[in-house]
Amino acid sequence: MSEGAEAAPRPKPEHPILWVARPMITAARQFGKSLVRPSTIVYPYERLEDPRFRGEVDVASGKPIGVGEVWDNYRGVHALNVSTCISCNLCAFSCPDLCIDMVTVPGGDPKHPKKCPQIDYGKCSYCGFCSDACPEGCLTMTTRYELSVSKRSDMVYSPQKLHEIFARKLPMNPIRLERPANEDSILLDPPICIGCNACARDCPTGCITMLDIPKATAKPGEKLPKRIWKEPVVNDSDCVRCGTCISVCPKECLFWGTRR
């Protein structure tokens, strides 16, 4: 400190009584305000679901407020339309929390049982990746947020339970149905393909057709490879880019790429 500068005076210590009196005065002031306008929301009879009630709440005993109105980007419990699900597995593939399992649902072809997503909400982070990836728009997210249960096993929602939520016609988030312009296509490496039909057999949308190709003529001393002289042709307009054909191909002759 330079010479001539005066030191700042120390604050006077508060009286010990103020240590007790000041919090009590604050509590009494808040209590007085609550008599005029209560600040407690009695859930579930009163709710703050509508943005209009964030700034000003009109509390009436036993009268719900803002019920059924939520933000446009709110993500709650999923709803599943089992009838339009194609078992493409994209929802489970895109889930970062690994909370979606594909389980068999009653009905359908016994040789090719239908599988639909089952969601464990004990792990779900409500990111919405699954509903964005669903090509048929059969899995979306509703405005329901109440998930209180007494057992952890009740947090697992089967496809049938998700379909019941769909049947209630709850408000749902908009579904992304448009594909990005730079999306890759499924391409074929013909010399490696053996025409085994695995891709067409397991395609959930049936967009792969096995077409006959001319059988090659063996040169003297050359042995033709053992194969079925068919090759898969993918209909891009029906393909949902689930990658099932690529995963089941035994020769890895199907791959992602840009069609020229």
Draw up the topology in text:
Blueprint: H1 16-36, H2 52-55, E1 78-80, H3 90-94, E2 100-108, E3 113-120, H4 129-133, E4 139-141, E5 156-157, H5 159-167, E6 185-188, H6 198-202, E7 208-212, E8 230-234, H7 244-248, E9 254-257
Antiparallel strand pairs: 1-4, 2-3, 3-5, 6-9, 7-8
Q: Which features would summarize this protein structure in a list?
A:
21% helix; 9 strands; 3-stranded antiparallel beta sheet; single chain; Alpha-Beta Plaits; two-stranded antiparallel sheet; alpha+beta
Quick summary:
With 260 residues, the chain is an alpha+beta fold.
Describe the structure.
The structure is a single chain. The termini are far apart. By secondary structure, the chain is α+β, with helices and mostly antiparallel strands. Residues 53-68 have low confidence and may be disordered. Strands 2-3-5 form a three-stranded antiparallel beta sheet. The protein is elongated, with a radius of gyration of 31 Å. Among the domains are: 78-167, 2-Layer Sandwich (Alpha-Beta Plaits); 185-215 and 226-257, Alpha-Beta Plaits. It is 21% helix and 17% strand. The chain has helices at residues 16-36, 52-55, 90-94, 129-133, 159-167, 198-202, 244-248, and strands spanning 78-80, 100-108, 113-120, 139-141, 156-157, 185-188, 208-212, 230-234, 254-257.
What CATH first level of the domain at 78-167 would be assigned? Alpha Beta
Mean pLDDT: 80
Radius of gyration: 31 Å
N-to-C SSE string, H for helix and E for strand: HHEHEEHEEHEHEEHE
| Largest beta-sheet characterization | 3 strands, antiparallel
Which stretches of 5+ consecutive residues score pLDDT under 50?
53-68
How many beta-strand runs? 9
Corresponding CATH architecture of the domain at 78-167: 2-Layer Sandwich
